[in-house]
Amino acid sequence: MTDPFVWTATIALIIALFVFDFAVVIRKPHEPSFREAALWSIFYITVAVLFGFALHLWHPEFPTVEYFAGYVTEKSLSVDNLFVFLVIMSRFAVPPKYRSRVLLVGIAIALILRAVFIAAGAAALDAFSALFYVFGAFLIYTAWGLARESEDDAGHPDYEEGRMVRLVRRFFPVTDGYREGKIVVREAGRRMVTPMLLVMVAIGSTDVLFALDSIPAIFGLTQDPFIVFTANAFALLGLRQLYFLVEGLLQRLVYLHYGLAAILGFIGVKLVLHALHENNLPFLNGGDPILVPEISTGLSLTVIVVILTISTVASVVATRNADKLEDEIEAEEHGESLKPEERP
Fold it and tell me: Are 175 and 192 in contact (CB under 8 A)?
């Protein structure tokens, strides 16, 4: 997509959604209820879906399937971000009523940094098609590492302050409290920042690490920078609401990392096959393309949805059985043994 009008209108829409979210939805600090988070999550998913169909109507040649495959992939990989966001919130002891604002600003920072990554990645792939081999191998390696994680490691990731957070601490004195959600205050005759700024920087900069996986993954589905950018933008736009919607369910997604590993591995193989099909490396087949089957975007979308469904359902079933077993053990310990006919 190279239409300047579409690019301008899309960026204006994304900025408007961020401004609306900040000025209206989270204007008054509060902890969103489950119902509120669900409604706003549905709203942002609907906006993303309507955007894809609207562009298809505006430009019939618009690769709608690639857009939806990229959006679903980025949305699923963004769930992995939430585990770390949860750890960061706990690490900095962010009061629940300020978490929406922290997430929104952090996500805005993340989107700006991702836009830089996307532009650099698109330019690099356009100049060096051999990078498809590198991206494919990197995703397969990442998938292997993710699949080897234990359930405890996947559900309880560690967090260490990054360079950007340490840089803020170095140049600005930090208050010992959140000061009613303010970012900068003046105390004892000097300007100080509150932990709000540290958390926002932590979330925004940490997301860049996840972009190292997700951006090569979506380039495996489409090479259109417009689709890569919009899929990332709409996935991130709904991430704040998704955090509050699944906050209590994150620990139940015990098999999610296996599903994400399978998705990354699948896309990695797709990238390698594409690289072989477009091969121009002189030391490989004399620089000529290698006739290998390529995986269509439609098939990719189907595989991604099926993998996510299986890993989610398996997680829910496994944790439900575990909760039931824990209840039975606790009942036994308190002398409330179940009747034989009530035992599984």
Answer: yes
Mean pLDDT of 161-178: 84
- Give, in degrees to the nearest 5, the angle at Cα 114 between 112 and 115: 65
Return the closest-CA partner of residue 1 out of 64, 54, 62, 68: 62
Which letter, b or e, does each residue of 58-73 get, where b requires 16 or more Cβ atoms within 10 Å of its Cβ?
eeeebbbbbbbbbbbb
The closest of 102, 52, 54, 48 to 75, measured between CA atoms, is 48
DSSP collapsed to 3 states, 20-47: HHHHHHCCCCCCCCHHHHHHHHHHHHHH
Rounded Cα distance between 21 and 191, Å, is 28
Distance CA 81, CA 94 (A): 17
pLDDT per residue as tens digits for the range 96-114: 888 888 888 888 888 888 8
Amino acid occupying residue 226: F
251-255 contacts at long range (C-beta below 8 A, 24 or more positions apart): 251/155, 251/319, 252/315, 252/316, 252/319, 253/79, 253/155, 253/311, 253/312, 253/315, 254/151, 254/154, 254/155, 254/315, 254/318, 254/319, 255/151, 255/311, 255/314, 255/315, 255/318
Q: 120 — phi, psi (to 5°)?
A: -65, -40
Quote the CA–CA distance of 282 and 97 in Å, as a whole number.
59
Of 290, 307, 291, whose CA–CA distance to 299 is shortest? 307
For residues 208 and 84, the answer to whether their CB atoms sit within 8 Å is no
